[in-house]
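Standup notes
- DV: blocked on the single-chain target, sequence here:
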Amino acid sequence: MAAFPSLHALIYTPHGRDATIAEALLREAGCASRICPDLARLEAALGDDDCFAVVTEEALRGADLSGIAARIAAQPAWSDLPFIVLTRGGGGPERNPAAAHLTEVLGNVTFLERPFHPTTFVSIARSALKGRYRQFEARARIEELREGENRLQTALLAGRLGSWEFDIETETLQASATCKAVFGLGPDAPFTYQDLLARIHPQDRGRMQAAVHRSISQNVDYAIEYRTVWPDGSIHWAEIRARIVRDRKGTGSRLVGVSSDITQRRTAEDQLRQMNETLEQRVSSRTEELKQAHDAIMAEMAQRKRAEDQLRQAQKMEAVGQLTGGLAHDFNNLLAGIAGSLELLQMRMLQGRTTELDRFIRTAQDATDRAAALTHRLLAFSRRQTLDPKPTAVNDLIAGMGELITRTVGPSVTMELVAAPDLWATLIDPNQLENALLNLCINARDAMPEGGRIRILTENVLAEEVSGEPSGITPGPYVLISVSDTGTGMAPDVVERAFDPFFTTKPIGQGTGLGLSMVYGFVRQSGGHVRIQSAVGQETTIRLYLPRHLAGVEPAAALRSPAAAPRAERGETVLVVDDEPSVRMLVVEVLQELGYGAIEAADGQTGLDILRSSARIDLLVSDVGLPGGINGRQLADAARTLRPDLKVLFITGYAESAVMGGMHLAPGYSVLTKPFSLDNLATRIGGLITS
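- DV (later): unblocked, structure below
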């Protein structure tokens, strides 16, 4: 017999030692017990999980048993709690009317007359316990059946299957709400077997009845698909599956099954069948159409090409919009700094307060330098900037930037430099390399909003030794610079477009999309390569492969001060041609500081007229883009025709390649890109005139 350690027998024997004796005997019978000191405790303790109760007749005689009777009456169908009633004299209900009353109240009662032998009590207790266990097993089976029924109903609802049952002898049909819905009826609508037949399409009704008869007579499963006519007259399809079920005696046959609406499936099958039936005809017709439509297809291709061109133009305009948004944001900030500084300078000078002017001048100069850096980034991504490559020791350059990078990325980011000993030199523009590294570190910082680590690593590599890299790296020795971060990483589509000009993941106004494009353009223009390795949730590494330079690193040249620029000799004159009055004013001021005479012209035609005159001109300083039909390049060519020894200095916002059309500068020509420092302008003018 299975043990149920959590189950107890209840003992209510309030007189003498009956409770103690009963508890000991029940322990011998293998049953735990719980003593109830009064009738109220017994009534409160009665429950479905009790084994049985041991009571004495005299304790119940004359007591109000209505509460206990209510508890007994409220038992679930599987439960019939046994009571062992200990009596004195009179015996059972056949000789004791009071005992008969207890049988009516308690129900399942076994009387044991005292005095009794302990073995008899233990035997009766074990019989009661065994009977109670059978009740518990019945409860478990009932709960399993109920749970299985719930799972079945859940499965039917999930599969949109309606359940039904048909009594073959009485032709009684019972159907669920889902089953009625298959026939277009509501859940409360009457649905007899005759109603079912009425809902079947007349052309399918005979086939359905024949299938039912075959299933009953041959004891085979019932499976059929037929059309149904809903109350609104619409035609639908239903699939019905069932099986014959008989009772234990082999009689009382029932047909139990499920139904489902398969209208969508049958409609799709009919359409597919119709398509297959007409496939050969349609193929032949289509082939003929293709033969006759060659011109139309060519016209469609031309139209598609125009549409693709329009799409590319739209994408280009969108990219330009993103670029202009970022540039406008950056330049507005810079112009605000410059304009504000100049306005404050004017106010202080009008007030006679000259002690704080240096601070405003430095602010305006810093904004000007940042604006120049932004225009250089525009030229860099297009690979048209004017580079000043020099043999460079990369380790020394990075070490010199350490404080700048640390201050830029902030205290939440840890910087780590792993420098290879005996690193090769590379021929590179050091200023542009510094800008590129600073840009990569700023991007790395932005990818780590909660802080993290940036590692800069340098090493010597050969192209053949680069593993896991995409093809396209020209074989040879390279100086490798790797910038890694512990940030959020990039998705594959972002990695694929990272070097695209104007592409940025930042909102409009917070980035131009030129950062990585600038790095890529600068490195490629310098003969190197750039690669990205990244994934979402992993660190990002950007590698710069810079060609090795075999010559040694040259010492840095000392900066020349404005005072070092050559002074003008008597009568030396410079022609300044620029359509921007502020630029002409600055150039003329520098010339006058150096003692040169200056002649101004606002366009190419005016400049050409001055060159044709007899005026002394020792140097032509001209912008490249000039109004009046003659640009700076054409003006310079005409000037060299009129005055073959005339020196020419182009000042331009474009790159040197844009000025010369890809050709090298001829002797006597020089280019100075805007914006430029006045020191540099003075040095370049003096050098050209005295050369």
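- Follow-up: Residues 37 and 449 are 71 Å apart (CA to CA).
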